[in-house]
Design brief:
The complex is a heterotrimer.
Chain A (H helix, E strand, L loop, with lengths): L2 E6 L2 E6 L4 H7 L23 E6 L2 E6 L10 E3 L3 H17 L4 H9 L19 H9 L5 E4 L6 E4 L1 H7 L15 H8 L3 E4 L2 E4 L1
Parallel strand pairs in A: 1-5
Antiparallel strand pairs in A: 1-2, 3-4, 3-5, 6-7, 8-9
Chain B lengths: L6 H14 L6 E5 L2 H6 L1 H14 L7 E5 L11 E4 L3 E3 L7 H9 L9 E2 L5 E2 L6 H4 L17 H6 L4 H6 L4 H11 L11 H10 L6 E6 L8 H8 L1 H15 L3 E6 L4 H16 L15 E6 L9 H8 L23 E5 H13 L1 H5 L9 E8 L5 E6 L4 H8 L9 E6 L5 E4 L9 H6 L8 E6 L4 H15 L5 H18 L7 H15 L3 H5 L2 H20 L11 E5 L9 H5 L5 E4 L2 E5 L9 H5 L7 E5 L22
Helix pairs in contact in B: 8-9, 8-11, 10-11, 10-12, 11-14, 18-19, 18-22, 19-20, 20-22
Chain C lengths: L1 H13 L7 H12 L4 H11 L3 H10 L11 E6 L2 H5 L2 H12 L12 E6 L10 E4 L2 E4 L3 H9 L3
Helix pairs in contact in C: 1-2, 1-3, 6-7
Classes of the chains: A alpha+beta, B alpha/beta, C alpha+beta.
Chain lengths: 202, 639, 152
């Protein structure tokens, strides 16, 4: 794998072919905000917080750094004006769903956001998918999944599987950026009894 | 059916078919596209069969159910050959008269097209709706029974394929590139360049795909092409596959198009029987076959990367497009996706040459485009025009202008990704780049005409609502951004607009445009931003004056019976579904605003000569007259 | 129940047990059975070796599928742009009021299922109501009520 030289925030960074801009930045200790990203999981590109500006052939584009692979001679700006504008709006949109959530608060403070102009409708799930992806990719149990589409999209525990697997696992709980996953599980955990080897949910 | 093992075999078959057909033999063709089907074309066809049998004419007269003719306003369309007499709005009851008159060499006048001056038109091609069009792709529909491949072959079908299979793929690619065929699905990306990228991408296995998901509401061109002339699409697809080096194709059709799925299945079967599909096509050594996949009802799955994911059996959500699908598509293999119309244009380019194709259209947009001209327009239907024709010509010369004498307000193109083009810009030529410059886009071909009774705030809300439902919901800017924009629009429409709303719509819109994962999100703000650009005054009327100038937004309008005009005919009173109208014989009718559901029935049924019901918006309602007030009788007739 | 599972097995076999044909298999079962019971989805998960989460995501993502039994008569109202500007929302309101169910719902007596659809491709007839596959162009209220009342 050949070496690639790119510039991030006026700093020259060496990277390997196939690395993403995010990985290259992290290797050079340049911080780019992320929410749905996790180093063990396949990059997802859902939160868009890691959006950066790239300049190539004097043309500027906005791309998500967690998915975009590095190219030789690429110029990357991680905190330029259009990027910050996007991050601020995203944080306000997220704040309306999960006001004051810990991991979001840190980014929000950095960008000067401490409230939102949108009506607060707290579901506390920003659908980053970390829980779903972890259970599918790492644990391969698929006890939790997405259902629905658009604004109706939800994360749901599948009682039949979850009741068996989750009590002895729980590894996805700390992955939740809003910290609310454990309580969602508790609500979803349904009481059942067993009769002739089959589970009956009450 | 004989297997065709060479181009010569195909030509021989064509001659055989033509020899068996007498061009002078009477043939009754009945348009059987979904539109005419809804008008009862099947019953018309059955009535013809019965009447022809009754007259003992089975051997003397042919009947053919054809693909969509495009003049959907006037279905069911029947054209009698060889004279090409065109009858419109045909009903089963008309058939006996048609048969008897035609046998006598006479015409059924009342079923002919009549223009504004009362002049009748006999031949389909002379009807003004058709005269201004350039139906090079769509025109064949009227001659072809989609369930009979011989009709297509008789008209020269598959001769382009026969030519291509014995050319070098690079030569074919050059021709398509030279023709500058740009994608007809909305993106407008040069097809030749996409083909080249797929052809050059590393990997032995490559795929070609027909995108027949056609999700834009109001657009049904692809459906009519697939239903009416599936072989034209298939021929283009095989040519493309040969050029790219693909041996497996997919056709993704939305399941809401059952007739298209059916006709496609028949077409594929017949093509396979003739060995125009399968192994060693026409003896060239080229293998290729096609699988049909039905969509399951999601607009977003029509986006090319989402479509490929759906073909893999997974949820049809878009992927980031940094790696082009031409290089890594279905199962990470190079995949070339094109729209139905794009594929159908390919055989024409091969048969007539790139020079011919580039002689039509503008500098940047070559050839023709099929549009579904619908909405507030007289001649609703599918039209095919050369690029460069102005919107004005399409809406007025072909479309026949606005019905009921209403005033034109705007024309919407590009579906939920496009915008509204106002009267002042009607001279804009139909061209990919010109339409984008005015804040809209070509899109897949939906062209919705709007008049003074269409509210632009409502139009923006309609599109955003559509997108909010169809968004896959994966990324935050699209899912949450569209949702918040929709909330603002709903408030404005309900009379709760606030100063700063327009600016906020623009602010959120910019982030949705710049940060969304796929084109659904990045183009979602277009309808909102374009209506703000050209109809800002309407937004301001809603926000500042709580008024809907077009009289559409329910919470901002009130139906009112003018007491001085009411003639107490009791019609509106009896028809009101909410029982909100009080009054009686000789007594003025009054609408109880608290009970009124704004359904509009009273306005519909009030006799035009009284014209007592009006829609008011943004002004205080006059005090209702006391109950028991008598009407003012009009004396005699108005002079 | 056994019948339903047989339908699932048949659909899988028709597509050669191909995982990639999941959506096509579900479409076939939906058409045959009129809805997708949980037991069928679980059976598909086992037979095709696809996680149940993925099957549920697909079943809830696409409009063609119903996880609850549908009514005997399908009533569709087109909400395409052309029909919209010609007054489809008002037509929908009147139908909603008459049937007493909202789009996406099924009546308690299992008689009707009401749904909206985006563009049927007969914009010249707009606004359009489709009842059991029969198209009706801009039916006045009384006629609409007559057509629906005639459905058993």
């Amino acid at each position: 794998m050949s070496d690639i030289a790119l510039t991030i925030n006026d700093t020259e960074v060496k990277a390997k072919e196939g690395m993403t801009i995010l990985e290259a930045a992290q290797s050079a200790s340049i911080n780019i905000p992320t929410l749905c990203h996790h180093e063990k999981l396949i990059p997802y590109g859902a939160c868009r917080l890691c959006t950066v500006e790239i300049i190539r052939d004097r043309r500027s584009r906005l791309v998500t750094s967690c998915v975009y692979t590095v190219e030789d001679g690429l110029i990357v700006k991680t905190e330029s004006e259009p990027v910050v504008k996007i991050r601020k709006m995203l944080l306000e949109l997220i704040w309306a769903i999960a006001p004051g959530a810990q991991s979001i608060r840190e980014y929000a403070t950095k960008y000067g956001i401490n409230r939102t102009k949108f009506e607060i409708e707290p579901t506390f799930c920003i659908l980053c998918g970390r829980c779903v992806r972890y259970c599918a990719e790492i644990k391969k149990k698929n006890a939790i999944g997405f259902i629905g589409r658009g604004i109706e999209r939800r994360v749901m525990f599948f009682p039949d599987i979850a009741a068996e697997e989750c009590p002895k696992c729980g590894e996805c709980f700390p992955l939740c950026p809003t910290g609310v996953l454990p309580s969602n599980y508790a609500i979803a955990q349904m009481p059942y009894f067993t009769w002739e080897g089959k589970k009956y949910f009450i | 059916m004989p297997r065709l093992n060479s181009a010569a075999d195909l030509e021989r078959l064509r001659q055989e078919i033509l020899a068996q057909r007498d061009p002078n033999k009477p043939c009754v063709t009945i348009c059987s596209g979904t539109g005419c089907h809804a008008y009862g074309s099947e019953k018309v066809a059955e009535a013809f069969i019965k009447e022809i049998q009754r007259n003992g004419l089975q051997e003397k007269v042919d009947i053919r159910r054809t693909g969509c003719h495009g003049f959907c306003e006037r279905g069911t369309i029947v054209v009698i050959f060889p004279e090409e007499i065109c009858y419109l709005r045909v009903k089963p009851e008309d058939i006996p008269e048609i048969i008897s008159k035609t046998l006598e060499g006479k015409l059924v006048d009342r079923l002919l097209y009549e223009d504004g001056t009362g002049q009748k038109v006999v031949h389909e091609g002379e009807i003004p709706f058709y005269k201004h069009q350039s139906r090079i792709v769509f025109g064949s529909n009227r001659f072809i029974d989609p369930k009979n491949i011989n009709d297509y072959i008789a008209r020269g079908g598959y001769s382009a394929l026969a030519k291509v299979l014995f050319m070098a793929p690079e030569q074919v690619l050059e021709e398509v590139k030279r023709a500058n065929l740009r994608g007809r699905g909305g993106g407008g990306f040069p097809a030749g360049i996409k083909w080249e990228a797929t052809r050059n991408a590393p990997g032995e296995i490559k795929y070609v795909i027909v995108n027949a998901d056609e999700g834009d509401p109001g657009a049904y061109m692809d459906r009519s092409l697939l239903e009416g002339n599936p072989h034209s699409v298939l021929e283009g697809l095989i040519i493309g596959a040969y050029t790219i080096g693909s041996h497996q194709g997919f056709i993704y059709v939305r399941q809401e198009y059952p007739l298209a799925v059916e006709n496609l299945a028949v077409a594929l079967e017949q093509a396979r029987e003739y060995r125009l599909l399968g192994t060693n096509i026409l003896g060239s050594g080229f293998d290729f076959d096609v699988q049909v996949h039905r969509g399951a009802g999601a607009f977003v799955s029509g986006e090319s990367s989402a479509l490929m994911t759906a073909l893999e059996g997974r949820v049809g959500e878009p992927r980031p497009k940094y790696i082009r699908t031409a290089v890594s598509g279905i199962w990470q293999r190079p995949s070339n996706l094109n729209n139905v119309e794009t594929w159908a244009t390919v055989p024409l380019i091969i048969n007539n040459g790139a020079d011919w194709f580039t002689s039509i259209g503008t500098e940047g947009s070559k050839g023709t485009k099929i549009f579904s001209l619908v909405g507030k327009v007289n001649n609703t239907g599918l039209v095919e025009v050369p690029m460069g024709m102005t919107l004005k010509e399409v809406v007025f010369d072909i479309g026949g202008g606005i019905p009921k004498g209403k005033k034109f307000k705007g024309v919407q193109t590009g579906g939920p990704s496009g915008g509204v083009i106002p009267e002042g810009l009607l001279d804009t030529p139909i061209d990919f780049d010109e339409l984008t410059k005015v804040g809209s886009m070509m899109g897949s071909g939906g062209m919705i005409v709007m008049d003074e009774d269409t509210c632009m705030v409502d139009v923006a809300r309609y599109f955003l609502n559509f997108l909010a439902e169809e968004s896959c919901g994966k990324c935050i800017p699209c899912r949450e951004g569209i949702y918040q924009m929709l909330k603002i629009l709903n408030r404005i429409g309900a009379g709760d607009g606030r100063t700063g709303d327009i600016e906020q719509l623009e602010e959120i819109g910019e982030v949705v445009r710049d940060a969304s994962l796929c084109a659904l999100g990045t183009t979602a703000p277009n309808p909102v931003l374009s209506t703000i650009r050209y109809f800002r005054d309407e937004y301001e009327a809603h926000i500042k004056h709580k008024r809907c100038p077009a009289g559409v937004c329910k919470e901002l309008i009130a139906y009112y019976i003018q007491p001085e005009k009411c003639q107490a005919c009791l019609i509106c009173l009896r028809n009101c579904p909410a029982e909100a109208i009080t009054g009686g014989k000789n007594l003025v009718h009054t609408i109880d605003q608290d009970k009124c559901t704004k359904c509009g029935v009273c306005l519909e049924v009030c006799p035009p000569r009284f014209d007592a019901v009006v829609k008011l918006s943004g002004i205080a309602l006059p005090e209702p007259v006391p109950p028991g007030t008598e009407v003012i009788r009009k004396r005699g007739r108005e002079k | 129940m056994v019948q339903e599972l047989a339908k699932a097995d048949q659909a899988v076999d028709k597509h050669g047990g191909d995982k990639n044909a999941l959506i096509q298999i579900l479409l076939d079962i939906q058409r045959e059975n009129n809805w997708l019971p949980k037991d069928i989805l679980t059976r598909l998960s086992q037979k095709l070796d696809i996680p149940l989460t993925q099957i549920y995501h697909i079943a809830t993502f696409y409009k063609a599928f119903s996880l609850v039994p549908k009514g005997r008569h399908a009533v569709l109202v087109c909400m395409g742009t052309a029909c919209h500007v010609r007054g489809a929302p008002r037509l929908l309101d009147r139908i909603t009021e008459f049937l007493n169910i909202r789009p996406g719902e099924t009546s308690n007596d299992m008689r009707f299922s009401l749904n909206t659809v985006n563009c049927l491709g007969c914009c010249a007839l707009g606004p359009v109501m489709v009842v059991d596959g029969e198209y009706h162009s801009n039916p006045p209220t009384k006629e609409m009520e007559k057509i629906l009342a005639a459905c058993d």
